[in-house]
Amino acid sequence: MSAPDWAPLTGFRVAVTSARRAEELSALLQRRGATVTTAAAITMVPLPDDDALRAHTEDLIATPPDIVIATTGIGLRGWIAAADGWGLAGELTAALGKARVVSRGPKATGALRAAGLPEEWSPESESSRELLHYLVEGGIDGQRIAVQLHGATEEWDPFPEFLDELRAAGADVVPIRVYRWRPAPRNGEFDQLVAGIADGRFDAVSFTSAPAVASMLLRATEMGIENRVLAALRGDVHAMCVGPVTARPLVRLGVPTSAPERMRLGALARHITDELPLLCARTVRVAGHVLEIRGTCVLVDGVVKAVSPAGMATIRALAHRPGAVVSRTDLLRALPGSGTDTHAVETAVLRLRTALGDKNIVSTVVKRGYRLAVEDNLAQAR
Length: 382
Hints:
Blueprint: E1 13-16, H1 22-31, E2 35-38, E3 42-44, H2 51-62, E4 67-70, H3 73-85, H4 89-96, E5 100-103, H5 106-114, H6 128-138, E6 144-150, H7 160-168, E7 172-178, E8 181-183, H8 189-198, E9 204-207, H9 210-222, H10 226-233, E10 238-241, H11 244-251, E11 257-258, H12 265-280, E12 282-286, E13 289-293, E14 297-300, E15 303-306, H13 309-319, H14 328-334, H15 343-356, E16 362-365, E17 369-372, E18 374-381
Parallel strand pairs: 1-2, 1-9, 4-5, 4-6, 6-7, 9-10, 10-11
Antiparallel strand pairs: 3-8, 12-13, 12-18, 13-14, 14-15, 16-17
Helix pairs in contact: 1-12, 2-4, 3-4, 3-5, 8-10, 9-11, 13-15
InterPro entries: 4pyrrol_syn_uPrphyn_synt_sf, 4pyrrol_synth_uPrphyn_synth, OmpR/PhoB-type_DNA-bd, Sig_transdc_resp-reg_C-effctor, UROS/Hem4, WH-like_DNA-bd_sf
Pfam families: HEM4 (PF02602), Trans_reg_C (PF00486)
GO molecular function, one term: DNA binding
């Protein structure tokens, strides 16, 4: 048997919102066949220019904390590097070294040890909830706790409930916001990506940080399309997040999310590869053929058939209820644009039949419309 002419993600459209390592994630997805659109959702505030971070650093040196919580490796390393640039690295590590040090996961643990700050404890699950339970169980009333946060702003933190529960347990919490961010510039590629989500032009959107999610939601509101974006993400555009912290802003809004077990970029690419065909591809047996309907193409008996946007809209409408007759009026509504002439439907069906390679796949029902010629009315959706 010859090798198939398609890859696992052939025909699927994925939006990548990462500010860092976007090229790496895009390459991983493209190698698996996806059509990828990239636009960074955020821009980072350069650490040497972060006056707020420097002020917090000087404050902790003057009044060392009782407990230090490291949440990310890159954030902790960036903080130490910034302090070194200000000539404060030695004083900072000396101040932190007087505290109990806990870590949220292995990357943060590695950064702590590299800075000469061995951790007291770290949850194997990398769970903020388990870390919180450990601290509260031991008693933190009256304790000054420095929490290193990654990707925060003065108005938004990635762990709001975590910080609130520390305070509720009596702690004096000092958030250390490392790598603060700003939304992407207006009227650029990111605006086009957000509009594409609203229009359903993607099968999945990948998020590698909670700030990227927050920026997308903020921009959708500014563009007046927040409801459409949320409707798309609750429907046929699937939110693929690197982990639960990233997903949290969407979960709060009732948006279904999907994430790999390991919070790693490669794991996210594999997760998208495994899950997207299950979520999006629709398989039907029609006129002696097996059709797999994807985002931008149809596989007929395992062979990729390039189909126009109008053709894809037509076959998706016909496959919504395989075997049922769909009127020309209903098919016209499904076509891109806002046409009013049903001749556009006849043209779309003719071109679809040609693209699929067998005119019998789509049957004409005289005076009623069109239907997929399903075998014994059995179809399965994956």
